[in-house]
Design a protein that fits this description.
- The protein is an alpha/beta fold and about 250 residues long.
- α1 runs parallel beside α10 and α7 packs parallel to α8.
- It has an eight-stranded parallel barrel with strand order 1-2-3-4-5-6-7-8, surrounded by five helices.
- It is globular.
- The structure holds 2-phosphoglycolic acid (PGA).
- 2-phosphoglycolic acid binds next to β8.
Length: about 250
Protein backbone atom coordinates (compact mmCIF):
# COMPACT_ATOMS: atom_id res chain seq x y z
CA UNK A 1 0.00 0.00 0.00
CA UNK A 2 1.31 3.42 -0.87
CA UNK A 3 0.48 6.74 0.75
CA UNK A 4 -0.63 8.19 -2.53
CA UNK A 5 -4.22 9.36 -2.79
CA UNK A 6 -6.43 6.68 -4.33
CA UNK A 7 -9.67 7.45 -6.10
CA UNK A 8 -12.75 5.28 -5.87
CA UNK A 9 -15.17 6.78 -8.34
CA UNK A 10 -18.65 5.38 -8.80
CA UNK A 11 -20.37 5.66 -12.15
CA UNK A 12 -24.04 5.02 -11.54
CA UNK A 13 -24.97 5.38 -15.22
CA UNK A 14 -28.76 5.60 -15.76
CA UNK A 15 -29.66 4.05 -12.42
CA UNK A 16 -31.00 5.43 -9.17
CA UNK A 17 -33.79 7.61 -7.83
CA UNK A 18 -34.44 9.55 -4.64
CA UNK A 19 -34.70 6.35 -2.60
CA UNK A 20 -31.08 5.57 -3.53
CA UNK A 21 -30.07 8.20 -0.99
CA UNK A 22 -29.63 5.39 1.50
CA UNK A 23 -26.78 3.98 -0.61
CA UNK A 24 -25.02 7.35 -0.66
CA UNK A 25 -25.57 7.83 3.06
CA UNK A 26 -24.11 4.42 3.91
CA UNK A 27 -21.04 5.02 1.81
CA UNK A 28 -20.53 8.47 3.33
CA UNK A 29 -20.89 7.12 6.85
CA UNK A 30 -18.42 4.35 6.21
CA UNK A 31 -15.84 6.77 4.86
CA UNK A 32 -16.50 9.20 7.69
CA UNK A 33 -15.81 6.54 10.31
CA UNK A 34 -12.99 4.78 8.57
CA UNK A 35 -9.53 5.51 9.85
CA UNK A 36 -7.10 6.53 7.17
CA UNK A 37 -9.84 7.71 4.85
CA UNK A 38 -7.56 10.61 4.05
CA UNK A 39 -5.62 8.43 1.64
CA UNK A 40 -8.65 7.93 -0.55
CA UNK A 41 -11.08 10.16 -2.37
CA UNK A 42 -14.60 8.92 -2.95
CA UNK A 43 -16.67 10.39 -5.75
CA UNK A 44 -20.14 9.29 -6.78
CA UNK A 45 -21.14 10.24 -10.31
CA UNK A 46 -24.89 9.96 -10.03
CA UNK A 47 -27.59 10.97 -12.52
CA UNK A 48 -28.00 14.75 -12.84
CA UNK A 49 -31.38 14.67 -11.10
CA UNK A 50 -29.79 13.34 -7.91
CA UNK A 51 -26.68 15.48 -7.50
CA UNK A 52 -28.28 18.40 -5.70
CA UNK A 53 -30.72 16.53 -3.45
CA UNK A 54 -28.10 14.00 -2.33
CA UNK A 55 -25.40 16.55 -1.69
CA UNK A 56 -27.77 18.77 0.20
CA UNK A 57 -29.11 16.04 2.40
CA UNK A 58 -25.84 14.45 3.50
CA UNK A 59 -24.64 15.29 6.98
CA UNK A 60 -20.89 15.34 7.69
CA UNK A 61 -20.19 14.92 4.02
CA UNK A 62 -16.79 13.43 3.22
CA UNK A 63 -17.57 12.14 -0.26
CA UNK A 64 -17.82 14.13 -3.47
CA UNK A 65 -20.32 14.18 -6.30
CA UNK A 66 -19.85 14.13 -10.03
CA UNK A 67 -21.83 14.10 -13.26
CA UNK A 68 -21.52 11.63 -16.12
CA UNK A 69 -21.61 13.92 -19.15
CA UNK A 70 -22.51 17.47 -20.17
CA UNK A 71 -23.47 19.49 -23.20
CA UNK A 72 -20.58 21.07 -25.08
CA UNK A 73 -22.01 24.60 -25.06
CA UNK A 74 -21.19 26.67 -21.99
CA UNK A 75 -23.56 28.58 -19.79
CA UNK A 76 -27.17 28.74 -20.93
CA UNK A 77 -28.80 28.61 -24.35
CA UNK A 78 -31.60 27.34 -26.56
CA UNK A 79 -30.58 23.66 -26.45
CA UNK A 80 -33.60 21.60 -25.55
CA UNK A 81 -32.82 18.83 -23.10
CA UNK A 82 -29.19 19.86 -22.65
CA UNK A 83 -27.37 20.52 -19.37
CA UNK A 84 -24.14 22.53 -19.32
CA UNK A 85 -21.09 21.96 -17.15
CA UNK A 86 -21.85 25.20 -15.31
CA UNK A 87 -25.33 24.01 -14.42
CA UNK A 88 -23.91 20.74 -13.08
CA UNK A 89 -21.31 22.62 -11.07
CA UNK A 90 -24.05 24.76 -9.54
CA UNK A 91 -25.94 21.57 -8.67
CA UNK A 92 -22.90 20.41 -6.70
CA UNK A 93 -20.88 18.31 -9.13
CA UNK A 94 -17.16 18.79 -8.64
CA UNK A 95 -16.22 15.97 -11.00
CA UNK A 96 -17.44 14.97 -14.43
CA UNK A 97 -16.94 11.83 -16.50
CA UNK A 98 -16.29 12.67 -20.16
CA UNK A 99 -15.58 10.48 -23.15
CA UNK A 100 -17.15 7.34 -21.70
CA UNK A 101 -17.29 4.58 -24.30
CA UNK A 102 -21.05 4.29 -23.87
CA UNK A 103 -21.33 7.86 -25.17
CA UNK A 104 -18.62 7.45 -27.80
CA UNK A 105 -20.58 4.51 -29.16
CA UNK A 106 -23.63 6.78 -29.49
CA UNK A 107 -21.68 9.00 -31.84
CA UNK A 108 -19.76 11.29 -29.50
CA UNK A 109 -16.70 12.31 -31.49
CA UNK A 110 -13.24 13.20 -30.22
CA UNK A 111 -13.87 16.82 -31.26
CA UNK A 112 -17.10 16.93 -29.28
CA UNK A 113 -15.40 15.41 -26.25
CA UNK A 114 -12.72 18.11 -26.53
CA UNK A 115 -15.36 20.84 -26.47
CA UNK A 116 -16.95 19.27 -23.42
CA UNK A 117 -13.58 19.06 -21.69
CA UNK A 118 -12.96 22.75 -22.38
CA UNK A 119 -16.36 23.75 -21.03
CA UNK A 120 -15.87 21.68 -17.87
CA UNK A 121 -12.33 23.03 -17.39
CA UNK A 122 -13.71 26.56 -17.64
CA UNK A 123 -15.94 25.64 -14.71
CA UNK A 124 -12.87 24.38 -12.83
CA UNK A 125 -14.38 20.93 -12.59
CA UNK A 126 -12.27 17.79 -12.23
CA UNK A 127 -12.49 15.72 -15.38
CA UNK A 128 -12.46 11.96 -15.52
CA UNK A 129 -11.48 11.42 -19.12
CA UNK A 130 -12.23 7.88 -20.32
CA UNK A 131 -10.08 6.11 -22.87
CA UNK A 132 -9.78 2.50 -23.98
CA UNK A 133 -9.78 0.08 -26.87
CA UNK A 134 -12.32 -2.38 -28.25
CA UNK A 135 -11.69 -6.11 -28.16
CA UNK A 136 -10.91 -6.14 -31.87
CA UNK A 137 -8.40 -3.32 -31.49
CA UNK A 138 -6.76 -5.22 -28.66
CA UNK A 139 -6.60 -8.41 -30.75
CA UNK A 140 -4.93 -6.48 -33.54
CA UNK A 141 -2.33 -5.11 -31.14
CA UNK A 142 -3.59 -1.56 -31.52
CA UNK A 143 -4.26 -0.73 -27.85
CA UNK A 144 -1.46 1.82 -27.49
CA UNK A 145 -2.14 3.61 -30.77
CA UNK A 146 -5.88 3.84 -30.04
CA UNK A 147 -5.24 5.29 -26.60
CA UNK A 148 -2.64 7.72 -27.93
CA UNK A 149 -5.06 8.91 -30.56
CA UNK A 150 -7.87 9.39 -28.05
CA UNK A 151 -5.60 11.46 -25.81
CA UNK A 152 -4.04 13.54 -28.59
CA UNK A 153 -7.33 14.37 -30.25
CA UNK A 154 -9.25 15.50 -27.18
CA UNK A 155 -6.57 17.10 -24.99
CA UNK A 156 -4.23 20.01 -25.59
CA UNK A 157 -0.95 21.06 -24.07
CA UNK A 158 -2.49 24.27 -22.69
CA UNK A 159 -5.21 22.44 -20.70
CA UNK A 160 -4.85 22.44 -16.94
CA UNK A 161 -3.58 18.90 -16.43
CA UNK A 162 -4.07 19.10 -12.67
CA UNK A 163 -7.79 18.98 -13.37
CA UNK A 164 -7.66 15.94 -15.63
CA UNK A 165 -7.72 12.35 -14.41
CA UNK A 166 -7.49 9.66 -17.07
CA UNK A 167 -9.58 6.51 -16.75
CA UNK A 168 -8.36 3.55 -18.74
CA UNK A 169 -11.41 1.45 -19.49
CA UNK A 170 -10.92 -1.31 -22.04
CA UNK A 171 -14.35 -1.45 -23.67
CA UNK A 172 -14.39 -5.26 -23.56
CA UNK A 173 -13.99 -5.24 -19.79
CA UNK A 174 -16.94 -2.92 -19.05
CA UNK A 175 -19.80 -4.88 -17.52
CA UNK A 176 -18.32 -8.17 -18.74
CA UNK A 177 -16.69 -9.46 -15.56
CA UNK A 178 -13.44 -9.74 -17.45
CA UNK A 179 -10.41 -7.69 -16.49
CA UNK A 180 -7.14 -7.42 -18.42
CA UNK A 181 -4.27 -9.62 -17.31
CA UNK A 182 -2.12 -7.82 -14.79
CA UNK A 183 0.99 -7.74 -16.95
CA UNK A 184 -0.87 -6.13 -19.86
CA UNK A 185 -2.62 -3.70 -17.55
CA UNK A 186 0.62 -2.66 -15.92
CA UNK A 187 2.21 -2.06 -19.34
CA UNK A 188 -0.77 -0.04 -20.57
CA UNK A 189 -0.95 2.19 -17.49
CA UNK A 190 2.79 2.83 -17.76
CA UNK A 191 2.41 3.59 -21.45
CA UNK A 192 -0.38 6.10 -20.75
CA UNK A 193 1.65 7.91 -18.10
CA UNK A 194 4.85 8.06 -20.13
CA UNK A 195 3.19 8.94 -23.40
CA UNK A 196 1.16 11.69 -21.73
CA UNK A 197 4.30 13.21 -20.21
CA UNK A 198 6.11 13.07 -23.53
CA UNK A 199 3.20 14.43 -25.57
CA UNK A 200 2.45 17.35 -23.29
CA UNK A 201 6.01 17.89 -22.14
CA UNK A 202 5.16 17.72 -18.45
CA UNK A 203 7.30 16.20 -15.75
CA UNK A 204 4.35 15.32 -13.58
CA UNK A 205 2.69 11.99 -14.22
CA UNK A 206 -1.05 12.15 -14.86
CA UNK A 207 -3.32 10.25 -12.52
CA UNK A 208 -4.65 7.16 -14.24
CA UNK A 209 -7.58 5.09 -13.00
CA UNK A 210 -8.60 1.66 -14.13
CA UNK A 211 -12.24 0.91 -14.92
CA UNK A 212 -14.10 -2.18 -16.11
CA UNK A 213 -15.68 -4.90 -13.97
CA UNK A 214 -13.91 -3.84 -10.78
CA UNK A 215 -15.31 -5.80 -7.84
CA UNK A 216 -14.38 -6.92 -4.33
CA UNK A 217 -12.80 -10.12 -5.65
CA UNK A 218 -10.44 -8.62 -8.20
CA UNK A 219 -9.52 -5.33 -6.52
CA UNK A 220 -6.71 -6.86 -4.45
CA UNK A 221 -5.12 -8.23 -7.58
CA UNK A 222 -5.62 -4.90 -9.35
CA UNK A 223 -3.98 -3.14 -6.41
CA UNK A 224 -0.71 -4.88 -7.27
CA UNK A 225 -0.43 -2.52 -10.23
CA UNK A 226 0.97 0.29 -8.12
CA UNK A 227 0.83 2.78 -11.00
CA UNK A 228 -2.98 2.73 -10.86
CA UNK A 229 -4.27 5.77 -8.96
CA UNK A 230 -7.75 4.43 -8.35
CA UNK A 231 -10.79 2.91 -9.95
CA UNK A 232 -13.85 3.88 -11.94
CA UNK A 233 -16.55 1.54 -10.77
CA UNK A 234 -19.82 1.01 -12.62
CA UNK A 235 -22.16 -1.81 -11.60
CA UNK A 236 -20.62 -2.37 -8.17
CA UNK A 237 -21.08 1.29 -7.20
CA UNK A 238 -24.85 1.00 -7.25
CA UNK A 239 -24.77 -1.05 -4.05
CA UNK A 240 -23.35 0.40 -0.83
CA UNK A 241 -22.10 -3.02 0.27
CA UNK A 242 -20.38 -3.86 -3.01
CA UNK A 243 -18.75 -0.44 -3.21
CA UNK A 244 -17.60 -0.47 0.42
CA UNK A 245 -16.28 -4.04 0.04
CA UNK A 246 -14.10 -2.89 -2.84
CA UNK A 247 -12.56 -0.18 -0.64
CA UNK A 248 -12.19 -2.59 2.30
CA UNK A 249 -10.50 -5.26 0.22
CA UNK A 250 -8.23 -2.77 -1.45
CA UNK A 251 -6.79 -1.70 1.90
CA UNK A 252 -6.74 -5.19 3.44
P1 LIG B 1 -18.45 -1.66 -14.81
O1 LIG B 1 -18.52 -0.23 -15.53
O2 LIG B 1 -17.71 -1.49 -13.52
O3 LIG B 1 -19.89 -2.03 -14.58
O4 LIG B 1 -17.75 -2.59 -15.73
C1 LIG B 1 -17.44 0.64 -15.54
C2 LIG B 1 -17.76 1.87 -16.32
O5 LIG B 1 -18.49 1.78 -17.31
O6 LIG B 1 -17.29 2.97 -15.98
Amino acid sequence: MTNKLKYFIGNWKMFGDFTSYKIVNKINQYIYKRKGAKSSKIVLCVPNTLIYPFRNKLKRRVIYFGAQNCYQQEGYGPFTGAVSAGMLKKAGAEYIILGHSENRSEGETVQLIKKKIISALNQKMNIIFCIGETYLEKKRGRTFSVIRNQIMSSLEKKFNKNKIILAYEPIWSIGSNIIPNIKDLCATIKFIKNDFKKTFKTRKSPRVLYGGSVNKNNVKMLSTVTEIDGFLIGGASQSAKKFIDIIKNYYK
